Amino acid sequence: MSKNKKSSIGKNAAILGLAGIIVKIFGAIYRIPMTALIKDVGIGYFQSAYPIYEIMLAISTAGLPVAVSTIVSREIAKENYLNSKKTFKVAFWFMAFLGTLLALLLWIFAKPLVNFLGNPGSYYSMLALIPAMVFSPPLAAMRGYYQGLELMTSTAISQIIVQGTRVATGLYLCYLLIPYGLEASAGGASAGAGIGAFLGVMFMLLVHKKHKREIGDSLNTNKDNVMNSKGILNELIKIAIPISIGAAILPIMDTIDIRLVMKGLLKAGFSLEEANLRFGWLKGMAQTLISLPQVIGIALGVSMIPVVSKLFTLKKDEQLVKKVSSINRITLFIAFPAMFGLFSLSEPIIRLLYGSTGAEAIEGTARILRILSLSVPALMLINVNTSILQAVVKEKIPVINLVIGGIFKIILTYVLTQRPEVNVYGAAIGTVVSFTITALLDIYYVKKEIGLKMAYKTFISVISSALMGGIAYMVWKALNARLSSNIATLVAVMVGAIIYVSILFVTKTVTKRDLEEIRE
Q: Which of 15, 58, 177, 385 has its CB surrounded by the most CB atoms within 10 Å?
């Protein structure tokens, strides 16, 4: 591979990575103004509809774009340009059909599904997601095609368009429908996803029209090895199924979790509205904040796949062990301060972001956040080590590990949420235990299949993080008496970050070589 080609791959990865981070940040901050509009009860309605939608989305969009990209890039390498174009057409129309079919099923079964989940107030939110189910699969097919052509900019722009539109229109409709009640307003927030997906499809169709001639008709086409449509479809499905199964596990677990939490809280003596309110604290507010550090874990994991895959293929075992150990260490350097920061400043952070929800919601969400913060290192390690295991062709292992962790989650949530003194906090405890077990299993298999060396300096980061969290809390406590809580929180976060980074460099826990590893 030429130097220019390598540069192109690095540029493409940076483009997609930046777009992914922007999209994640949009998704995380989306909940803040929405919570101010519909409070924790409305967030509960909004959040309850998403796991079913995400399962369908995983089935239809997780594996097929990867399959499209794989086949298109392979056929272009063989100069079979006609096959690459046929792959796009087959995938586009198949995914359009699949999206329409799943949308129809969602429309038919929306009422039974929300009743099954124990939250009938989320009915409008689920109905509002039907248009997104229609447009998201064909959009994913187009993204997969352009990724196969190594034209990543269009894909990145479409992701930002979809998420930006979703946030803007969702918030507008949420506000517009407030006079009609929280259920309708939550449905308006959900409707933004469909509008965003529609505009994403329109954008990609314009891109395709503009580039169609230069990426297809102007190229010499090898007509000797033309694949038929049935053969292309069979190959797409064959590649996509394992990836889709893996992607569907977490949404399935989330769906089970909704039912268990709602039913458990009702058995604990809470009314339906009280149960939904507490569910909103858990899923709509606290869990959203836990997803922010996860963005870094996902980015690190995705960036590691080509590096690990190359070293594994070339059998450079020593370099592979060094690289895998380094990325796990760097992950923990980031994860531990995030954990201690969220733990020690949980109430000030919730007050800063969701101050309009009331004292009970702030206190309840802060307690949940303190518990969930303990899962941050495990969650980030799962993201990184899942990618590593996939890169060494052990993609089934992280799926099995997720299922094992999910079983513990189901058992703990079922048992604990029914206890009035534990209630919704039991679901958070189940999440921490589940992710911890999954992360430990992933680490075990990475060590077994590749090798893993964790330096003693990793434990220095734990001590540094704990010290940072304690100092940040004391700074907040001191300033809160003189300034507003929000200003005190922001200052405490900045002071904590400066202290943590300073300790790492003074103790040489992080070196120049570690920074080079991150760049690489």
A: 385
